[in-house]
Write a structure and sequence with these properties.
- The protein is of the alpha/beta class and 182 residues long.
- The protein has a single domain, classed as 3-Layer(aba) Sandwich (Rossmann fold).
- The protein is 35% helix and 15% strand.
- A six-stranded parallel β-sheet has the order 2-1-3-4-5-6, sandwiched between helices.
- Keywords: Hydrolase.
- Pfam families: Ser_hydrolase.
Length: 182
Amino acid sequence: MPPLLILPGYNNSGPQHWQSAWERLFPEARRVQQRDWEQPTLEDWVTALEAAISACAVPPLLAAHSLGVSTVVHWAARQGQRIQGALLVAPPDLAHPSVPEACKAFAPVPRQRLPFRAVLVASRDDPYASFEQSEQMAQDWGCRLEDVGRAGHINSDSGLGEWPQGQRLLRALTQDVEGQEA
């Protein structure tokens, strides 16, 4: 597997989050650290992502959650393709009333087609985005949409542990990318 960069969202991902479990499971995984998890700024977060990608010897895969997805999409609109693909989990609708005010500075999120393979994973009861809005994001970005049913925000509160379904999606994305290169 290529390097795996893990991009948490607002307030980072705690020890019970699937992203933290994946860091423990996959030796090639590395969390993209942000200067401030509670008061995110778009420029800082995109700069941290760019630095993490540049530090990889080969193009990495990304596993982004929530505001981490918004960061990836902003980065992609500026930088182009230097990654193999991305698993985009539970992107927030930044216009949704329940989204924390600190996250709204990432709006508007670019809606152009992404220049790499991506899978958008959405829940039917995410408190930060309607399923219809997730469908529209997937369509705009040219992503395959994966419906995980009623899994909330697909975070620690969802009780996913190591999230085997997400691991299967990541493996499938890796195989898609490798098949495209052959």
